[in-house]
Amino acid sequence: MAVRVLVVDDSGFFRRRIVEILAAEPRIEVVGTAANGREAIQKNTELRPDVITMDIEMPVMDGITALRRIMATHPTPVLMFSSLTQEGAQATLDALEAGAVDFLPKRFDDISKDREQAKHLLRTRVRQIGARGLPRPRPVPRAGSAHVPPAPTIQRRHDYRLVVIGSSTGGPVALQQVLSKLPADLRVPVVLVQHMPATFTPAFAARLNQQCPIAVKEAEDGEALLPGTAYLAPGGRQLTLEQRAGQVRIRVSDGDPSLHYRPSVDLAFDSASKIFPGKVLAVVMTGMGADGREGARALKGGGSTVWAQDEASCVIYGMPMAIVEAGLADQVLALDHIGSSIAKSV
């Protein structure tokens, strides 16, 4: 069955372009278009698409306002189009907090230098998001109910020296939920690898730092890892760890240009496995693809622990599924248990 899409943008040229790209995929059906947020709300109610693509800046009603109303009335997965500017980053993070499941740059050259590859990525993202739907909320049990889902049993098997978390699609909101449950005096450092453009990571780190008890910052080349601090890998570059002058320090580099993901969860996990053999707690969360699987294999080979987010709470069950299917997951946890389980384990 084809994924049904509503395309929303105030530019007639951009609407036609997106419709043309999506219509070339037999598994996608464009069921309608809208020129502003008010029209988007109306057509979402009438057409009930599986996914909406929507611009942020529009006349009459902007995309974020429309998104909030859609999520309050007829919740639908929304893929936002964003400009890769500082202002665009802030607006996109607002959209993700309001309920958007993902975003893509509005300029196709910012998605990929290869135009056909950019079109393929757009079609794939729309199809996967539309087919997946919104993550299923965990039901709130009634008082005295016998069907209260138990919290996972976490056994302290290791004297952890580092927590490292990898995520992609759906990750920004998921990371906020996890880090909000970590105490400010966490006794180990945390490394975060989120697939995100370079212009977005400074704003994202600053926002997490404001929202979470633990200190959060964008990682800088050469700085030493400190307990109670979460370091976000800069977008568009690679983060690894190295031992230098008796301290574990962060290395931020351009890395191998042939690598698809920048930053790469695999690279960060692999370097952590060498610096802290058997002493790492790694978590793979929502996202497309399989980035993190080979790095998790290296961690497990050294005796470290790997957790995966469960399917029900993922926006896209790709990266965690790769971990589970490879037999690398020591625990499979719902998103609302991950942060508290890290806090108990460390």
Description:
It is a single chain. The chain is an alpha/beta fold. It has 2 domains: 3-132, Rossmann fold (3-Layer(aba) Sandwich); 162-345, Methylesterase CheB, C-terminal domain (Rossmann fold), CATH 3.40.50.180. It is built from 12 helices and 14 strands. It has helices at 12-23, 37-47, 63-73, 86-98, 108-111, 115-132, 171-179, 201-211, 265-275, 293-301, 319-325, 335-345; strands at 3-8, 28-34, 51-55, 78-82, 102-105, 162-167, 190-194, 215-218, 229-232, 238-244, 247-253, 280-284, 305-309, 331-333. Strands 8-9-7-6-12-13-14 form a 7-stranded parallel beta sheet, sandwiched between helices. It has a 5-stranded parallel beta sheet with strand order 2-1-3-4-5, sandwiched between helices. Strand 12 (280-284), helix 10 and strand 13 form a beta-alpha-beta unit. Helix 3 packs parallel to helix 4 (86-98) and helix 9 (265-275) packs parallel to helix 10. The chain is elongated. The termini are far apart. Residues 139-148 have low confidence and may be disordered.
Can you describe this structure in just a few lines?
The chain is α/β, with parallel strands linked by helices. Helix content is about 35%, strand content about 20%.
Based on secondary structure, the structural category is alpha/beta
- The poorly predicted ranges are 139-148
Mean pLDDT: 90
Main β-sheet, spatial strand arrangement: 8-9-7-6-12-13-14
